Amino acid sequence: IRDLERVADLLPLTTKGRRGFITVVAERTEASRAPSDRPNAAASSLERRVRRLIREAGLPDPVREHAVNLADGAAFLDFAWPDRRLAIECDGVAYHATVASLPWDDDRQNQLVMGGWIVLRLTWRQVVDDPQGVIRLLQQAWTRTTP
Q1: What's residue 9's pLDDT?
Q2: What residues have CB less than 8 Å from 106, skipping those under 6 apart?
Q3: Predicted pLDDT of residue 42
Q4: Comparing C-alpha atoms, which of 45, 106, 65 is closest to residue 53?
Q5: N or C: which end of the chain has fewer CB within 10 A?
Q6: Rounded mean pLDDT for each run of 10 residues along the chain, 147 residues in total
Q7: Is beta strand 73-81 parallel, antiparallel or unpaired with respect to 63-70?
Q8: What pLDDT sits at residue 4?
Q9: CA neighbours closer than 13 Å in the CB half-sphere of residue 133
Q10: Which residues contact 133 (CB under 8 A, 6 or more apart)?
Q11: What is the pLDDT of residue 62?
Q12: Is 102 buried (19+), middle (13-18) or exposed (0-12) by CB count in 10 A?
């Protein structure tokens, strides 16, 4: 799995035409991982790609795993600019597409929004298939927030 992630990281983020073999295999590999098999959050392939898109968008480096206190405990945001209350959550299939996680994600999202946060949710498909769209989204969100 790690070798596949290394190969995927070497491939360009922007491609023309159909999704390639590596993209399909990487999606299936990520989706099939058990939580105990995943590397720590900082090492996920999706988050590494998002970090590169943040840099390509010209934004400053965000805080990783930023803790926000919510009614039912702390939430750790994948990427955050706390002074702007802007966050990015990387929604991998293995962790955010289950019956158990969906209500928890929705409740957490609602609490963050009620606390004044703008939360962008990014999926593997968005990041791989439309990186330029993600860059535009990041830039638009940045201009809507103030420190």
Answers
A1: 56
A2: none
A3: 44
A4: 45
A5: C
A6: 54 50 49 38 77 97 94 90 96 53 69 95 94 98 93
A7: antiparallel
A8: 54
A9: 11
A10: 126
A11: 97
A12: exposed
Q: What are the strands of the beta sheet with 73-81, ordered from one edge?
A: 63-70, 73-81, 86-91, 118-123
Rounded CA-CA distance 25/22 in Å is 5
Q: What is the pLDDT of residue 64?
A: 94
Backbone angles phi, psi at 117, to 5 degrees: -85, 145
Tokens of 136: 């535009």
Rounded Cα distance, 139 and 76, in Å = 23
DSSP character string of the chain: -HHHHHHHHHS-S---SSPPHHHHHHHHHHHH--GGGSPPGGG-HHHHHHHHHHHHTTPPPPEEEEEEEETTEEEEEEEEEGGGTEEEEEE-HHHHSSTTHHHHHHHHHHHHHHTT-EEEEEEHHHHHH-HHHHHHHHHHHHHH---
**Amino acid (1-letter code) at residue 49:** R
Tokens 């289950």 locate to 98
pLDDT of residue 8: 55
